Amino acid sequence: MSHYRKLFLYILGLLLPLDLLAADAGLILKNGRIWTADPDNPWAEAIAIGGSRILAAGNNQAVAGLAGPHAQVIDLHGRLAIPGFNDAGLHFLAGSLDLGDLDLDGACSVADLQKRLRDWAAAHPREPWITGSSFNPSCLADHRQLTRLDLDAAIRDRPVFLRESGLHAAWVNSKALQLAGLAPPKSTDLNACLRDAALAAAARLLPEPSRARKLAALEQGMKLASSLGITSIQNSGGDAELLSLFDELDKQRKLSLRVSVALSFNPSSSPDSLDHFLELRQTFHGLRLRAGAVRFVLDGPSDSRAAALLAPYTDLPASSGRLNWAPEAYQSLIALYAAAGLPIVADAAGDRAVRVALDAYEFAHKENGPRDSRFRIEKIESISPSDAGRFSRLGVFASVAPFPSDAAALDAWSRAFGPERLKFGFPWHSLEQSGARLLFSSCWPNSSNLDPLRAIFAAVNRQSPDGKPSGGWMPAQRLGLEEALRAYTANSAFATFEERQKGRLKSGLLADVVVLSEDLFNIPSPDLYKAKVDLTIFDGRIVYTRE
Q1: Which residues, 6 or more positions from 189, have their beta carbon under 8 angstroms from its beta carbon?
Q2: Nearest-CA neighbor of 473 among 542, 387, 413?
Q3: pLDDT range class, residue 188, cuts 50, 70, 90
Q4: Residue 158, Cα to own-chain centre: how many angstroms?
């Protein structure tokens, strides 16, 4: 061993566990532009990986000295490498199951939709229901309303159930209506859209996927995630069954994601739910799978006018949405769960729901005393300007979905909220400037796109890659590139108390790395969408290579 390497390993010994020092680097990335997300060492040329950990991130010469005799060396040729993306809020099983359904993304004419239905039905003759996902009714030409007769013209003998991209509505044919008992066969009502109770009644008839199908779907979803550079996810809602599915894949050495599940709580949960959640937290607390938090849903989405607002909807003045909880009861519940040491995630879309969530966190602090709770609010479609500063003061994370903003979304929001409140819609920059830690999530499959690079483009430009609207949607809420990247990496790791394990490319941390085709820091922001994931490394091993 050279004197240089002995000295280098001695210095590393001050930082790394002894078991890492015993291992040579089995994988070297060199000649790169490596953004580490580490404030003390933000840029590097090379990374040495030994087992599942990063041995070093530094210059080429220093890192090369750690290579073992059989190390794989990858020349990045100046490409950008960053920490693996950490999606802070999604519904991974639902999205993975949707991958086996008819994909309606981009079906913007009735004729195209009908053709896709016929083709999929012919390819799946034994499926009792024809289910589709990612349907966007706003893209239909001339704002045409889809009717059940449109669907009947394509498929009449089997029930059709097409979910919108936000999962809050579905379009069905006459056969599905008949089976659900929602309309007589000769009804003159041509509406194909179901919401709320009618949607639930039809959805209950869909065949329950078998465990084998769920496992296969999760494997398919993980392959998609790896191709997009996602190495960690935080599942919004879940239960013991979901944890057992991921655990089975982990035991089979098939898990290619780090999974943190926010367990679902609802008003009908049993009185002993607290003990149950604590037991799951104790059982699942590993580096690849953990029961991470408890999730409470305070309201619904604004597109169905279910988000709880401080003032009525502009286009529905008789309604301000609705809360799922009485504020006083919710405060007591949050204080109880926080006292037990359980991290809390509040799903709150409207400005009133956000305020109720903040009030509950403030109440918990007063009841339980100061502690590092890392409370979180996700969704956050709108906030009152007076509440923005409370996130930082109370130590509350803001988890937001930087969806591709387009003209249809701007028009819908303008109708619902009016021009004044529109200024505070999806207030990413306002929250970041007030000192809040931002987390980025996809809400997949509520949002049809899981791609973090597309979301980063939207966050930086406040528009979708097609350039509409050309000026950006509320451009004052744009984020800088580095802030957007932190929201998908280091911040997300910190939110789950894992900042000493992942989220940065630093010696001793887990080796979750993404190599991109473009240097995001050296291209114009309108060109960010051109970047692709070339390589994804999870737990020190390559799980995806772009061909």
Answers
A1: 183
A2: 413
A3: low
A4: 33
Compute CA distances 97 → 195, 214, 238, whole Å: 21, 7, 15
| Phi–psi pair at 529, nearest 5 degrees | -65, -15
Name which of 20-24, 175-179, 256-260, 290-294 the model is least confident about: 20-24
Residue 146, Cα to own-chain centre: how many angstroms? 29
Which part of the chain has CATH 3.10.310.70? 98-203
Q: Where exactly does CATH 2.30.40.10 map onto the chain?
A: 1-84+503-547
Contacts for 172 with CB less than 8 Å, ≥ 6 apart = 148, 151, 159, 160, 161, 162, 180, 192, 194, 202
Task: Give CATH 3.20.20.140 domain extents, the chain.
Answer: 211-502
The angle at the Cα of 441, spanning 438 to 444, to the nearest 5 degrees, equals 165
Q: Which amino acid is at 70?
A: H
Task: Say which CATH class 1-84+503-547 falls into.
Answer: mainly beta
3 state SS of 177? helix
Would you say 463 and 474 are in contact if contact means Cβ atoms under 8 Å apart? no
Q: How many CB atoms lie within 10 A of CB 510?
A: 29
For strand 438-440 and strand 102-103, is the pairing parallel, antiparallel, or unpaired? unpaired
Contact predicate 447/403, CB 8 Å: yes
Closest CA to 295 of 264, 271, 261: 264
CB distance 256 to 543 below 8 Å:
yes
- Predicted confidence band at 6 (pLDDT cuts at 50, 70, 90)? very low
CATH architecture of the domain formed by 98-203: Roll (3.10)
Enter the CATH code of domain 211-502. Answer: 3.20.20.140
- Token pair in block for residue 407: 């003209």
What confidence tens digit (pLDDT) does each residue in 309-339 have? 999 999 999 999 999 999 999 999 999 999 9
Residue 413 pLDDT: 78
Structure tokens of 370? 């100061």
Residue type at 387? D
Distance CA 414, CA 314 (A): 9
Task: Judge contact between 457 and 508, C-beta under 8 A.
Answer: no
User: Do 102 and 131 meet the contact criterion of CB atoms below 8 Å apart?
Assistant: yes
pLDDT digits (tens, 9 = 90+) for 279-302: 999 999 999 999 999 999 999 888
What is the pTM (predicted TM-score) of this model?
Answer: 0.91
32-44 per-residue burial string, b: 16 or more CB within 10 A, e: under 16: bbbbbbbeeeeeb
Mean pLDDT of the chain: 89
Q: Where are the beta strands (DSSP E) in 459-524?
A: 513-516
Q: Residue 383 is encoded by which pair of tokens?
A: 């906030």
At residue 78 the predicted structure's pLDDT band, cuts being 50, 70 and 90, is very high
Lowest mean pLDDT among 1-10, 125-134, 514-523: 1-10
